[in-house]
UniProtKB/TrEMBL annotation:
UniProt family annotation: Belongs to the BIG1 family.
Transmembrane segments: 218-240
Organism: Linnemannia gamsii
Keywords assigned: Cell wall biogenesis/degradation, Endoplasmic reticulum, Membrane, Signal, Transmembrane, Transmembrane helix
Protein name (Swiss-Prot/TrEMBL): Protein BIG1
Topological type in the membrane: Single-pass membrane protein
PANTHER family: PROTEIN BIG1 (PTHR28285)
Cross-referenced InterPro entries: Big1, VAS1/VOA1_TM
Localization annotation: Endoplasmic reticulum membrane
Residues of the signal peptide: 1-19
Lineage: Eukaryota, Fungi, Fungi incertae sedis, Mucoromycota, Mortierellomycotina
Amino acid sequence: MRATVLLSLLLASLYEVSAVENTSPFLAWSPQEFSPRSLDTQVISVQDLHEGVNDLADCSHKAILVIDEPELHSDDLGRGGRNKLKNQVQGAESSLQIPFVNGAVDLETLAERLSQKCHAVLVNANVDSDALSSVEGPSVIYKKLSAGSADEKDEAVEDIIAQIHKKYQDDYLVLYSSSQIKELPTRHFSARQLPEEPAPTKTPSGIFHHYTFFSQGIFMGLLIAIIVVPIAMMGIFWNLSVQQPQRFEKKQN
């Protein structure tokens, strides 16, 4: 019973490890209320995420900001270096957090589809940081964060959100995920290697070097035979020496 429980726990832990590998988180927040609908889950596939985002981004916002942070993992958001990003999400009127998206999300293609769906102008903030100021009407902004520290990335997010807030006030939606999976370090479990025995300088010869005549098993067998066999034989002989009485004793008054 205990072995079965341990095996179940081991399989469960292996399943959890495989479940978080090759995943990226997805965040969405807005100063206005929105309904997560089909995105209210912890694990989701990329296809289901695209369908859910298509329902979430219903073109009711004047601006949709799509942020791409390559090699982002849910473990990165649980560390102390992303407090600014946490404040952005937790301080919003509506927010959505999916820790595990099974695969990388093509956020640039997602931004293009949203711009076509909402008939909005697609703005690539990576090419021109001031392109948003000249846009008239609804827009979908795509921003890919460059490599750097967590504070630098959070400051870049705050800057682009400040530009959007200045132009559209609180009428915007932010979609945050990763287009490149972070490779987690692989742990290899191997048997403990014993130190190698030094090679003999001279190859021994003779029958006693090729055959084993005395070993630990043979010694234990002889030891048990010397102790147990005499005791057993003595007990057998004592039992055999017991004789049945030839007559009954007289009854004494």
